[in-house]
């Protein structure tokens, strides 16, 4: 025991040391890759592997934890980056639909759950989900019945999750679902006769929400202040109008004419030069896009100017950190990750793989929690998926037909109420979190109403959707707790086994004691209920709701 | 006991662990225990209808006199509502022009014409009175990030201007009235649209409910077979978790458990209303508000602020096709709600008002509008000095005296003035109003006069 504590202390020191080295050399080189000064490998405990997988996947499994232990964090990330994307659209296109029916939003969610629960590319899927909450499109809009188009959009996020951010900006910008959602599609050049000017929607949100944010940032993500102590706006209304003129002339790809749209949601948008404004445009930081360029060249220039704004690194670094590891990253943490965005070590800006690696390998994410303020609340929907992943949740039909997750969990993929996502990065719930000046984005969708509903769905998924329930229908998604049931005669052993499998030992004695006591109240003749009672208390606990 | 220490006492007892037992005492007993000596003897409620996305209210209230309609139509082009289908209104006071409502708002038109609804003209977030020239020269302090959805929603909710204020003005009202409303069994602020900064207080917490009431925890009722599970669940909520996030999460559950049975048993006593509500989400939220108002006495409620919302107002695209349905929903839902308050005999005790991110550009982007600034809002209820337009209708001219650019209209009334007029009617003392509305001191008119 003492020995283990010493080892743990050593490991923390080594991680701090590694971080210090990274900072000192401007963030060059990833942990465990090259060089002779690598610290000797230190064994990762199962508990540590589970905590890492809580941050990097849709939920830890013992198999994945063993892979993390075998390959170490950096090796596991390398493997994941090399794993090709599990895609939604090909799956949807392979579905044999009942005659007379079309793909529905539930089919799209089936594809999404399938990849979230079963995809071998867990890190990629998790980062894609994070990106889908930053570069938001939603079916709570004119896209309400465009499941294939939204699947295609999501696939682009997955395929570019470790690619270059500049490329991601471009595929997102030219995606017709985004084009419809933020009305760049069909946006025309000004026409004085009709008293019209270009639509400003995409111009505004691409900067405000997807790339640079509202105010100038320091490299560590804190707000830069002017001489009067005031924040400095990143752009003005005039900047937005400049970009709005850039984004004119685009409609669905394969259209016969600007006003004869193809409605093809499965290919990039296409420009019609006759509808594009060819004047000069003043854009970010006073840069001027010259007159007379093609729509495509204007777009390339505009995206380049945004991509090269110094805000993008800290802005995206902080946004992804908040989605994966921490609601309140320290400025140095943000700065270390932003530095990797600015330069991946090989002189490349915008390497998202390097950014994700930096987020997960950073000492602040890997060291044991320094205080109660570290970490974050798990996204509510991820708690359900983690249950399914740990306990082999699936339906006999092989499908994941759960089409209203937002009703129970306050969120569903590509189903945000607005472009501002289900929750904002600066949400501060009243009480000790706001009093401490901290943020808890996910708490914005946890209120009395939703908290009850999510707990109810977990209860349903455990008590009424497990392998021992008779009469399950082919599409019912059920967990397999048969192995735990075998231990039901010894509640202590049973709970230890559940905790091992579900949380990798991250569960406290207090929760375990309640789980054991609850199981003990159930007659031994009902071993399934013994497991269910214990598992529910663990899965619904406030402790399990947070990542430390 | 000074108000601060009393507030701290209330917070530590009513919201703390002791609150669990206090909550079950009769209201009057609790009021006495907690030292309240100024409880309200009447009932009033404010109902905020937030129109998310930025309502294009320049098509909701439209000039119909020939000259003014001509200016409007020239600015709006293909987005203009045809003059011959508008619903005329006859405000008691006239600025020389004549006005009308959108053709799909007959419910609001009837309420207006019978003196139960008013229009508040051209309001928006302001820090101090601002002219077009001052805006263009940036010679007065302006709310940050004008024309941005979430920032301007935030201004409407918090009135923060450029200050770092975390609370909403409804939350601050609840804080200000904490002593007078201490006997209330549930929170003063109730949202039917999830968490909103509008209702965030410093000392008081809002309560969130659904359109069918408070959901109950499955398998955790007070029935014998559920009792052990519920005790175990509650025991874990009470743990002092190391994570600040876990503690916040547990507190939400604690409140949900404490409140759900209370609210649902009260709701079970609600009379069946003959008023028929439309099926829209907005109307269904208002239907639940009406039911909660119906059982106000069961819950010892004397003051309530409800938050309901509708979305889809960000009409960048297809405005001509989409906007009529939005206005029809607002009108029919609010009219049904008003009818329900008449049925319940509380129409003069309930004031409903709209808010929205911003008005929209007068100019078109081809088939829609972009983010603007000032816009009109509706106030409805029998306490409203209705059938009138409060404030000054803007000149709807591109490049005109009220145009900040592209037909973004500079507001002439601050949200602070609007909020304070409502708060004062609600029972907030004059001395507390500046704390509710931090920019109020910069404006000469503290009460817009639309409430009796």
Structural descriptors:
heterodimer; A: 548 residues; mainly alpha; 3 domains; two-stranded antiparallel ribbon; 49% helix; globular; disordered N terminus; B: 452 residues; alpha/beta; Alkaline Phosphatase, subunit A; nine-stranded mixed sheet; three-stranded antiparallel sheet; 14 helices; 12 strands
Care to give the gist of this entry?
Chain A has 548 residues and is an all-alpha fold. Chain A has helices spanning 2-24, 46-56, 62-82, 89-94, 105-118, 122-132, 147-159, 165-174, 176-181, 201-211, 237-246, 295-307, 312-324, 331-342, 352-361, 363-366, 380-390, 405-409, 432-435, 448-464, 482-485, 491-503, 509-520, 527-539, 542-545; strands at residues 250-251, 270-271, 281-282, 288-289, 376-377, 546-547.
What does this structure look like?
- The complex is a heterodimer of chains A (548) and B (452).
- Chain A is mainly α and 548 residues long.
- Chain A has three domains: 2-82 and 311-366, no CATH class; 181-307, no CATH class; 376-547, no CATH class.
- In chain A, 49% of the residues lie in helices and 2% in strands.
- Chain A is built from 25 helices and six strands.
- A two-stranded antiparallel sheet of chain A has the order 1-2.
- In chain A, a hairpin with a 5-residue loop joins strand 3 and strand 4 (288-289).
- The longest helix of chain A is centred in the N-terminal third of the chain and has 23 residues, at 2-24.
- Chain A is globular and about 80 Å long.
- Mean pLDDT of chain A is 93; it is low at 1-36.
- Chain B has 452 residues and is an alpha/beta fold.
- Chain B has one domain (38-442): 3-Layer(aba) Sandwich (Alkaline Phosphatase, subunit A), CATH 3.40.720.
- Chain B is 35% helix and 12% strand.
- Chain B has helices spanning 3-14, 19-22, 27-33, 66-76, 106-113, 132-137, 149-158, 169-176, 224-237, 244-267, 281-294, 319-343, 415-426, 433-436, and strands spanning 44-51, 61-63, 87-89, 99-101, 117-124, 189-191, 207-208, 303-310, 350-356, 375-380, 388-390, 413-414.
- The longest helix of chain B is centred in the C-terminal third of the chain and has 25 residues, at 319-343.
- At the A-B interface, helix 10, helix 11, strand 5, helix 19 and helix 20 of A face helix 7, strand 7, helix 9 and helix 10 of B.
